[in-house]
Specification:
2 copies of one chain form a homodimer. Chain A has 401 residues and is an alpha/beta fold. The first copy, chain A, contains 14 helices and 14 strands. In chain A, strands 10-9-11-1-12-13-2-14 form an 8-stranded mixed β-sheet, sandwiched between helices. In chain A, strands 3, 4, 5, 6, 7 and 8 form a 6-stranded antiparallel β-sheet that branches. In chain A, helix 5 packs across helix 9.
């Protein structure tokens, strides 16, 4: 159920503070069937001490079996059902490189590709060209001018780039050019809605010029545009929850997602210590803090089990500094699982810990996947964590008489 | 939530095999408050050994408190929310007797009834006439001819029969004739949609002739038609999941439900051993196998607790033969509970076991209702089992970036 409307109706002001400590990709797997997960193996005396006083459980980010990207994983943590509130790939790609997307920009994910002499796509990724080649080609594409519209072209990496169109009257609701299989011609961008027709014309004009500039190159002699989208105009968190929300994250993607829902993105440094300092420095300014730790995920993607254990131990070491600020509610979890064993995001449930006053502590004495299976929160969904945290923070009034 | 659309978007090919071992009516009840259920009492060393390495839990077929029929119980196992994807009673009744329903057939469930001299229904089941009487009356009804349409009339049992109309342009969306209470006249079949008007005329003509033929009989001198429906045209499993699905079941109803969603129904014998042989024989041909065991349910309906225990032990005995095929994912559960104590389907949750690689085994060491209460799958819904199985079979790609 999507109940942001209900939350918005019921929210009341309170002098309470809520922290969501998000260890990206927190959920793990044992390397052998009888082994321990990264979190279980980590020496986490502070998390375990907190678990004793808390409610623990396992949480599903999107739906059972669904492996979420970072966008859906975080939206759900903030109470937005990602199946209801979709963010286009172009927008996510722009956020991922820290592009300062404006509300009416149309962003597309671009892929350099290889076309044969008949214009058929023979390699959808142009052999994953080096990022340096990408940068050189992007310089060329930046010379393309469109009437009445600013264009931005930015390298992501390898064959991937971002195209952003900025100007009056741009609309999304556009089809993609990638035929998705090789041996087929590229598609023309078409408007799915009449209002998007002029934007489709502009994008096709840009594509025609891009292909003139890329012609003759090898292996990248063409490009495709996918996920052409605007900022979806998500409901803003301050209006829904009635609180001032601050985001502390070191990576562009997470800062971008926070910005999309109206959080203030706070300047911080590169380390978790920097992030803790930022939290302390802004403690008086906000009611809700999104505190993001990236490296649990990065080392998961790398398949580096011991490094994940170390990052978790590092967070555990800094936890007392966060608790010393005396938040009224703290939720500790991740956006999705990234088990080192799989070197990838996965669909597995995540351990979650919720501490606040006036709860009924369960019997969990260690913060880990297996102990959380028997936790008092049970099996929960990410979208339910925000309303629960608001309730424990005394920020929701009674529903009905 | 119904997320078959999402599954279809995310499915990818993989060289993996999934088995759903469905013991019909598996969930049971203790005969005395301190007793054991059928599954708990059964000696199941192989199931228990597998449980040690698996995730266990309890699953709700449709919704809490809802006692499902076989149709909804199975649809939900296959990922179709039965509250979204309804199958008409006429279709289910036809499937239940193994009638080879075609996509444009309109099927109705028929009930012989008793009418008084004023045409009011005085017994909606005609005193549950013997099946032999039913067969004699059905012979009469088979003589009815309709213009441009073939009709089939088939005995089910006692007062129940099936009527199927076959021909061009037949439509469903028809009302029923049974007033549902006694002392009222029968209703005329009406079209809920304009396109169904000609079909309503045909059905009413058939009914008029049927009443001429039945007039004067005792106690069955009339009949009612209910649940007039066509094959609902359910989304096909191969398209949703991207796999080849084979069904191994000995009873018509389950073969019929499997056929409705596009599984190949495999020829097999009458015993569970025969079904295992069929599984072995077709192992290379399919990615997903629905393996149905009927007698756990039949003996439940009979109230035969020890016979249910024996069937479960029989399945346990054959389990190693199934595991020897090395499925990548195996799910063991039922479509609903049929406790011998109740002699009926029931609303109780069902024990469920999911084994695959890359899971976090829980602490359950015995496959039974009470041990499963504390299992790592928690309390789950049937419709979530298929997406979970697909995820563990590496057949779902990431959702969102």
């Amino acid at each position: 159920m999507d109940y942001l409307d209900l939350i918005e109706q019921l929210q009341v002001a309170a002098d309470t503070k809520v922290v969501f400590l998000v260890m990206d990709g927190l959920g793990g797997l044992p390397l052998t069937p009888d082994g321990m997960t990264e979190l279980e193996q980590a020496h986490t005396p502070n998390l375990d001490k907190l678990a004793v006083r808390s409610l623990c459980g396992l949480s599903t980010p999107v739906a059972p079996g669904i492996e979420p990207g970072s966008g859906p994983g975080h939206l759900s943590l903030f109470g937005y059902d990602p199946l209801v509130y979709e963010i286009g790939r172009g927008v996510l790609e722009a956020l991922g490189i820290g592009f300062d997307l404006q509300p009416n920009d149309v962003a597309a994910r671009g892929n350099f590709c290889t076309l044969d002499e008949n214009g058929l796509v023979v390699d959808r990724r142009a052999g994953r060209i080096p990022t340096e080649t990408n940068q050189r080609l992007v310089e060329k594409l930046r010379t393309i001018e469109l009437p009445g519209v600013q264009t931005f072209v930015e390298t992501v990496k390898e064959h991937r780039f971002v195209l952003v169109l900025r100007g009056e009257g741009l609309e999304d609701g556009l089809t993609e050019t990638d035929p998705l299989v090789t041996g087929k011609p590229q598609l023309t961008v078409e408007a799915r809605r009449a209002e998007a027709e002029p934007t489709a014309v502009l994008v096709n004009r840009w594509l025609a010029k891009a292909h003139e500039l890329l012609a003759g190159g090898r292996p990248a002699n063409g490009c495709n545009l996918r996920g052409l989208a605007k900022d979806p105009g998500l409901p803003q968190m301050d209006e829904i929850c009635g609180w001032r929300a601050g985001a502390i994250a070191t990576y562009p993607m997470y800062r971008g997602v926070a910005k999309l829902i109206g959080m203030d993105v706070l300047a911080t440094g590169d380390t978790i210590e920097d992030e803790v300092e930022t939290l302390k420095g802004h403690w008086a300014d906000y009611d809700f803090f999104f505190f993001h730790v990236k490296k649990t995920d990065s080392y998961g993607e790398d398949g580096n089990f011991p490094a994940r254990v170390e990052v978790i131990e590092h967070v555990d070491h800094l936890l007392p500094d966060i608790l010393a600020l005396e938040p009224n509610v703290i939720v500790i979890t991740g956006d999705h699982s990234t088990p080192a064993k799989l070197k990838s995001h996965s669909w597995h449930e995540l351990p979650v810990l919720l501490w606040a006053e006036d709860m009924r502590p369960d019997n969990v004495t260690q913060f880990g996947e297996r102990p959380c299976m028997l936790g008092g929160l049970g099996h929960i969904r990410h979208v339910d964590l925000l309303p629960l945290a608001m309730a424990y923070a005394r920020r929701l009034k009674r529903y009905g008489a």
